[in-house]
Description:
differentiation; alpha+beta; 5-stranded antiparallel β-sheet; 7-stranded antiparallel β-sheet; spermatogenesis; extended; 27% helix; Nucleotidyltransferase, domain 5; LOTUS-like; single chain; 21% strand
Amino acid sequence: MSDLELTHKKVYSVLKAFLNGATEQELKSEFKSFAGYDIPFESYGFDSLTSFIASSPNLYLIKCNIDDNVLYLAKPSELSSSLDRLMSTQHNNDIYKKTDYWRDYVPTSKAGNATSGSCEKAVTESKTDPTEGSEQQQQQQQQQQQQQQQQLQQTLILDNNVLAIVEQHADVLSALIEKNKECPKSGDDDLNNYIGPYRLLIRFYTFFQSPFPGTILHIENPSLFSLFPNCFDYERCRMAETIFKAAAHGDPIFMNDIHCGKLYAVMCNDLSFCCCGVHLYTKAKNFYRGLCVEKLNNGQALFRLIDYGCTVTVGSNFVRPLPSGFDSVIALSIDCKLDGVGIFSNDEEWSDEAINYMKTALRNNSFNVTVKQQYFAESDFGVFLPFMSVVLKSSDDTMEMNSDLVENGLAAAL
């Protein structure tokens, strides 16, 4: 992948967070906060950001609002249409632009004054100006925009009140050390005195505006657990039902045709198939998107349900081809890894006591999440994903976990 293609992919990913479009300043600011540098459009021979965006009409749209402000949008496509339906509008900070589209962007002519305005009207003089209307319609539009802004502000104020304490810089290990002192003493002196440094890796497969509250529902093993955003419960159910309608009458896949690293439609209708059972609240019998992790010797395969975080072991008769288009939809689960939890020891191995302690602490607490920073990186499967640095703090304020992807780097995360 060339540098230009990578830059376009980053810009497109950023614009997907602005469902109603981003101004030039918003796009530049958001891109820099995510990627850590400015959009290098000049290095590719473009004199402006608008010309850079206009060079890829297959990726972007350019619109103008009633104030002649240019708005950049990520162009909907067959691959991203499902994602557009799944993204929750309550987290978008551009909702005030929703009714501001009046005309397409038309570049100024070379003979005209380039500084006279950023947009030209895409209507002829014989046509009625679309900005003209009755005073009653204008008042209704203004009232609607004010109501939308008030609702958005109320949502943000609520989140800030809930998570204000999380944003304070505190000793992230102090709570764990204090809780460890209260645990029954074991024969391992290192465990009794010290819990080694750790870091969290949270893979966000969709965009959320900071701060974002979440809850840890379960943990599979000491090094991997999942966070589920509450606002996506209905979306998981709807996606599972849609896949079921498309895959239920299909033919099963032979085990030789199942490959690790590929996505399939997996049926799970019994608690014994699942190591957590969390996803089964959606429906007693359904198909879910499963990533093949391992092929077992007994004619079964291990799948990770990417929209729920859990793993299931099923036979090939419970596996169907995934319907077209669903393989590119961004996963709804948020995978979290504890990369270094454990005691400090010379051989750098985790003791069973330390692992069980962390499992119990994570399972018995619910956490609030504050997003601190976001980064972009490419996964092993070639999918370009945003990574986020977050703070997790338990609802009873007894435990805090702080990730730091800057110091630890992204190479190990992938």
